[in-house]
Automatic annotation (TrEMBL):
Pfam families: Phosphodiest. Keywords: Signal. InterPro entries: Alkaline_phosphatase_core_sf, Phosphodiest/P_Trfase. Residues 1-19 form the signal peptide. This is Alkaline phosphatase. The keyword Signal applies. It comes from Chitinophaga pollutisoli.
Length: 293
């Protein structure tokens, strides 16, 4: 009898560890390059603030070091830091360090790898404004791979894809407000003007999710790779390292500030949990379970 109870307990634990959030069919991850957490309260960004009110969020999530682009975008979708996935520089095109583990595509395992292996019929896409994103995921594992010249073009391409294919998982990358931060400066009026413009684009994507009939079965995520200081980033200040982290949608608690620690690689782990994916041992990201109802 004790043995039978033990086996049942093991099965329950295995199921719980690989649980899927009930009713979620679509996850849309939206990343805004250079959107520092400090900007969220200062900017004219009603869509972002509405996502916070309707979801779970923290403005104290942290990037990995260095606080620069390729390092952090790869960490966000690979569930681990640069010490493990190997991308260590702002514009990494190949890993500078030997990855701890390689998938069948020759990269450290990412969400796209797990989805293709465990849900082979999943519709997945990456639509991005910065060309550097194209080196950070296995192109063979996705259905849609488009590098657009501007954030507006990225938005229109994403809207068309959402309405046509209703993707299971879509990663949308915006190159702004990082561009303005580098050219003019962070934390000044032109930077906040750009944040407002990106907020408008974000609203269009959310409307597309509604128009496609996906709203009730979706989780929408907004995050960033890093913030900025003066005209740069990459350092160890909190304005560079703290990023917004917002989850909204099916099964997500509303108007909840997340108090526990969150790292950017926890994004991948939390998305994997939503989809019920088994994650590799090499991932160090943790599911932020407090956001779920």
């Amino acid at each position: 009898m004790k043995k039978a109870r033990y086996l049942v307990l093991l099965l329950c634990m295995a199921f719980a560890a690989n649980a899927q959030v009930k009713g979620v069919k679509h996850v849309i991850l939206i990343g805004m390059d250079g959107l520092g957490a400090y900007a969220m309260e200062k900017a004219d960004n009603p869509v972002m603030k509405r996502m916070m009110a309707e979801g779970s969020w923290t403005l104290k999530a942290r990037s990995v070091l260095p606080s620069s682009s390729a390092v952090n975008w790869s960490s966000m979708i690979m569930g681990a830091g640069p010490e493990l996935h190997g991308f260590t520089e702002w514009g990494s095109k190949t890993p500078e360090l030997e990855p701890l583990e390689l998938d069948q595509y020759g990269l450290f395992p990412s969400l796209f790898t797990l989805l293709r292996e465990q849900k082979p019929n999943a519709e997945t896409g990456v639509i991005y404004s910065w060309g550097g994103i194209g080196y950070l995921f296995p192109k063979q594992a996705v259905n849609k791979d488009v590098n657009c010249p501007t954030d507006s073009a990225t938005t229109e391409t994403a809207i068309a894809y959402i309405k046509e294919k209703r993707p299971d998982f879509l990663f949308v990358h915006f190159d702004q407000p990082d561009g303005v931060g580098h050219e003019i400066g962070h934390n000044i009026p032109p930077y906040y003007e750009q944040v407002h413009k990106n907020d408008v684009l974000l609203g269009k994507i959310l409307q597309a999710v509604k128009d496609a009939g996906m709203w009730e079965n979706s989780v929408i995520i907004l995050s960033s790779d890093h913030g900025g200081i003066n005209k740069g980033h990459g350092g160890k200040t909190m304005v560079e390292m703290q990023i917004p982290w917002i989850f909204m949608g099916r099964g997500i608690k509303k108007n909840q500030e997340v108090k526990e620690s969150v790292m950017t690689y926890d994004t991948a782990a939390t998305i994997a949990y939503i989809f019920g994916l088994k994650t590799p041992q090499s991932w160090i990201g943790r599911t932020v379970k407090s956001i779920f109802k």
